[in-house]
């Protein structure tokens, strides 16, 4: 892919050249980790940071990259779209050229223009909304996870071919990520002539969903798909059980968070969730899984391995470019594949992975999960 240098990027390049003499003596190359480290979704940020920390520790132990150590800088966006640009501007102002994150799609979408305009590489290990990249012609924006128009069909396929309900309710949290994937699932169900009897948004952060539970009971739905995050899914499950709803729920990777067990209690048993394939089961990752566990980290969460892979991609790009230059690194990544724990990955022109696999898992009340089998 030919990188288009905007006037702003050219000006930044000139400024960077003027600072080259001092930058050449920098002891570290900084990688920002942008995501929620406060608020209701902090565990997603911690998943990503565990992956980043594990990768950086291993790379630094082997001498770093380009003769320098990697320094991790944590940036908190609380998973809020309005904080995405705040964090992005902070990254630019601190002279950081590489970002792993953002984590949530809304904050990611809000930050990407700034990164691309300022020549900063961002690789999200978790933001799945197509709108992050679709039609944007970005040069420095990448992902190490699939999109919701891959995840949604994976969920719909299982619903259509294995669960086979006649009537389905589809709920969402009215946000970019949740509504987007819920719509993708709804569209696929309707194409298969499954009756979507309810398509409705709920307000994220509410504590009482009894009204929507009542609607579900009256709709005749045999199955519920929810697009959104684990706090609301947990409440829907618990309050549904309290009203004897008796319907199986399914959600995307945003619902696959161990914290949901504390919210839903025993009602979480049997919830279905789409997640990245369980890369801990790959024999090639045996030593890496041990490295995570030796540090008290969970290698089997939704985003640890994709975050680890994002760091690997940045390092491969730096080594391939042979210099600490985000534009050159982006050019390298667009033109090459990278071997990672999630497989050999490569990107299309807009920075999306050419291939990514989502699986469906059954969630259990002890916090474990198993591959779904009907």
UniProtKB/TrEMBL annotation:
PANTHER family: LEU/ILE/VAL-BINDING ABC TRANSPORTER SUBUNIT, LEUCINE-SPECIFIC-BINDING PROTEIN. It comes from the Bacteria. Residues 1-26 form the signal peptide. The lineage of its organism: Bacteria, Pseudomonadati, Pseudomonadota, Betaproteobacteria, Burkholderiales. It holds the Pfam family Peripla_BP_6. InterPro entries: Leu-bd, Leu_Ile_Val-bd, Peripla_BP_I. Residues 28-361 form the Leucine-binding protein domain. Keywords: Amino-acid transport, Signal, Transport. Belongs to the leucine-binding protein family. This is Branched-chain amino acid ABC transporter substrate-binding protein.
């Amino acid at each position: 892919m030919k990188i288009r240098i905007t006037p702003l990027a050219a000006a930044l390049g000139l400024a960077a050249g003027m600072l080259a003499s001092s930058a050449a003596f920098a002891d570290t190359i900084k990688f920002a980790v942008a995501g929620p480290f406060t608020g209701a979704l902090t565990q997603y940020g911690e998943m990503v940071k565990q992956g980043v920390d594990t990768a950086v520790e291993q790379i630094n132990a082997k001498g770093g990259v380009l003769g320098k150590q990697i320094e991790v800088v944590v940036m908190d966006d609380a998973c809020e779209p309005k904080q995405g640009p705040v964090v992005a501007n902070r990254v630019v102002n601190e002279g950081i050229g590489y970002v792993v994150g953002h984590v949530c799609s809304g904050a990611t979408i809000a930050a990407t223009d700034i990164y691309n305009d300022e020549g900063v590489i961002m690789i999200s290990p978790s933001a799945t909304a197509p709108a992050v990249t679709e039609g944007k012609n970005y040069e420095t924006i990448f992902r190490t996870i699939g999109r919701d128009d891959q995840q949604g069909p994976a969920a719909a396929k299982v619903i259509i071919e294995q669960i086979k309900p006649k009537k389905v309710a589809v709920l969402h949290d009215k946000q970019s990520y949740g509504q987007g994937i819920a719509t993708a699932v709804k569209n696929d169900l309707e194409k298969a002539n499954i009756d979507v009897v309810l398509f409705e948004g709920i307000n994220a952060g509410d504590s009482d969903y009894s009204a929507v539970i009542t609607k579900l009971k009256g709709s005749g739905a045999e199955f519920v798909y929810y697009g959104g995050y684990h706090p609301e899914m947990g409440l829907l499950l618990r309050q549904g059980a309290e009203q004897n709803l008796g319907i199986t729920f399914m959600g995307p990777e945003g619902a696959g968070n161990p914290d949901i067990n504390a919210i839903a209690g025993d009602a979480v048993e049997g919830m279905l969730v789409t997640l990245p394939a369980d890369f801990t089961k790959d024999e090639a990752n045996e030593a890496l899984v041990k490295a995570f566990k030796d540090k008290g980290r969970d290698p089997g969460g939704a985003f640890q391995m994709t975050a680890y892979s994002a760091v690997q991609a940045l390092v491969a790009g730096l080594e391939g470019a042979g210099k600490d230059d985000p534009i050159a690194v982006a050019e390298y990544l667009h033109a090459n594949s990278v071997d990672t724990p999630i497989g050999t990955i490569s990107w299309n022109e807009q920075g999306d992975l050419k291939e990514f696999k989502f699986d469906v898992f059954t969630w259990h009340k002890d916090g474990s999960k198993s591959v779904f089998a009907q």
